[in-house]
Design brief:
The complex is a heterodimer. In chain A, 76% of the residues lie in helices and 0% in strands. Chain A is an all-alpha fold. Chain A has one domain. The radius of gyration of chain A is 21 Å and the shape is globular. Chain A starts with a helix and ends in a 9-residue tail after the last helix. The longest helix of chain B has 16 residues. The mean pLDDT of chain B is 87. Classes of the chains: A mainly alpha, B alpha/beta. At the A-B interface, helix 2 and helix 5 of A face helix 1, helix 2, helix 3 and helix 5 of B.
Chain lengths: 271, 245
């Protein structure tokens, strides 16, 4: 207890906050480096390519390029990202809250915020890497024209999908940690796949609408969309869609952080 | 160093009723003092300790750690406090060294200071033989030592321990309490809750017995025991549970 405080702690609160978030992120990544998780990640990488190969072989007259891109969109930014985040974001926070590690993080300055943001960062990095590899592998075997252009499009879609969906799953994780996975699946189905496909104001607050709209804009499909499909995409320019996902992510993570900051955990035997 | 004054904590139970988990508890722990917080399950021990650790907000009253009010300045209180619980919550995949490093970063400590502190704690808590082994492969006693090291990584002047010997065998408990003796000798204020009265009877400087959320007795061992045969009997008398058979 003899070392001066100034020499022991980061001078800048920002440096301390970033250090805390990175410490939790590294801890979560370390937890993900088990052979079971790596096997699951490997399956996530190979699965879309395997499906695309199977479809291409089955299609008698060859697979239309646009249809192939649409299928890859459903497989990677939707399925792989969604499933990846379901197993990385939500249970990771819930485990912390339920298994007792949580209290030891929460009694540190900024620990609650670091727990959420660090886990968010790890989930986005892990799932994003898996989804990117999956997209690139599938594109490599699909023999579509302009594969590099498509790789860029899918990199953007994957980044936005992971950022937005991880933020969405952070809410059930802090609101109901005991039922976090079930609540996250419900949120995915109700928010992303029910509300997201309703041609009403409510779909404006979903990531799925923004991703679909970006895909249509970047693939320049808008003029070719049938009239009944036009209402399922947003006509505004790509930067609006990107900004909407960014704002949505910040709002959701902030709300989750505030809930976590004020959440109390009473001992069960004293209630 | 640790000060609790007229602390009240009420919960709303799932049936809507109000549970008075802590109902006017006051206690103090001075630097270099170890105080035992005693009580049956549900007496309010863990709630009191969790308020001090800023995990719960008090309904009324105050709780301070090294002068920092846990409600007004929770960050200050967290910087001054080390917290150990019965469930160690030690991550299985990480080694003791990695755990201490992660928690040092959570406190905003600089890397050279973290390295210096880890070396100090490995020597002081005798972690040398298992400092680089994943915590999942450690015994209960070793895990509790790692948990204590994690609580001490930022060198706090106050320590709160919630039933730290619960999962330990007799030897593990004796060793842990021996370590706490050393920490008290360094001038730290230690507040310790436990059920194992015989283990702490001769180690704590003072005792606080709570029952139904209220303090029913407190003082040195001699003051609490009075004319009875030992701390066990004094405890049962204080909580109105009859004589020791």
């Amino acid at each position: 207890m003899n070392v001066p405080q100034a020499d022991r702690f980061d001078a800048s609160p920002w440096a301390a906050a970033v250090g805390s978030v990175l410490a939790v992120a590294m801890f979560q990544i370390r937890r993900l480096l088990s052979w079971q998780r790596l096997l699951l990640a490997g399956l996530g990488v190979v699965f879309p390519a395997a499906v695309m190969m199977a479809v291409r072989r089955t299609a008698r007259t060859g697979l239309d390029d646009d249809l192939a891109v649409l299928m890859l969109y459903a497989l990677v930014p939707e399925a792989v990202c969604m499933l990846g985040l379901l197993v990385t974001m939500c249970p990771a926070v819930a485990d912390e809250l339920e298994r007792g590690t949580w209290v030891h993080v929460a009694v540190r300055p900024g620990g609650r915020r670091a727990l959420l943001l660090g886990t968010y960062l790890a989930a986005v990095a892990w799932t994003g890497a898996v989804a990117l590899l999956a997209a690139f592998l599938a594109l490599a075997i699909m023999q579509v024209p302009q594969p590099l252009h498509l790789a860029g499009i899918f990199a953007g879609l994957v980044a936005l999908s992971t950022l937005g969906r991880a933020a969405l799953f952070s809410l059930p994780a802090v609101i109901m940690p005991k039922r976090a996975l079930v609540a996250s699946v419900a949120a995915a189905l109700v928010v992303e796949y029910l509300a997201g496909f309703l041609p009403a104001v409510v779909n404006q607050a979903t990531v799925s609408l923004r991703l679909r709209s970006l895909l249509v804009a970047w693939m320049q499909w808008r003029q070719r969309l049938p009239p009944e499909m036009q209402m399922l995409v947003d006509p505004q320019p790509p930067w609006v869609q990107i900004a909407a996902v960014a704002v949505l992510s910040v709002v959701l993570v902030t709300v989750a952080a505030v809930i976590l900051e004020f959440r109390q955990f009473p001992p069960s035997d004293e209630i | 160093m640790i000060e609790v004054v007229d602390l009240v904590k009420h919960y709303r139970a799932s049936d809507g009723s109000v549970v008075r988990a802590v109902d006017g508890v006051s206690l103090q722990v001075a630097p270099g003092e170890m105080v035992g917080l005693l009580g049956a399950n549900g007496a309010g021990k863990t709630t009191t300790l969790r308020v001090l650790a800023t995990l719960l907000k008090p309904t009324a009253g105050t709780a301070r750690v090294a002068g920092c009010d846990v409600t007004v300045d929770p960050l200050g209180a967290r910087r001054q406090l080390g917290y150990v619980s019965a469930t160690t919550g030690v991550p299985d995949r990480l080694t003791a060294r990695e755990i201490m490093r992660s928690y040092g970063r959570l406190h905003g400590m600089r890397e050279p200071e973290i390295a210096r502190r880890i070396a100090e704690l490995i020597a002081a808590l005798d972690l040398r033989d298992f400092a680089d082994r994943p915590a999942g492969r450690l015994s209960s006693g070793q895990r509790q030592r790692v948990s204590l090291a994690r609580a001490l990584v930022h060198d706090p002047p106050a320590l709160v321990l919630d039933e730290p010997t619960n999962a330990l065998d007799v030897v593990g408990a004796r060793d842990l309490l021996g370590l706490l003796d050393g920490l008290r000798g360094e001038g730290r204020a230690i507040l310790l809750s436990t059920h194992r009265l015989h283990e702490i009877e001769r180690r704590c400087d003072r005792f606080v017995i709570i029952h139904g959320g209220r303090v029913v007795a407190q003082g040195t061992a001699a003051e609490v025991v009075g004319g009875r045969s030992g701390l066990d009997e004094a405890f049962f008398a204080a909580i109105g549970a009859g004589a020791v058979p």
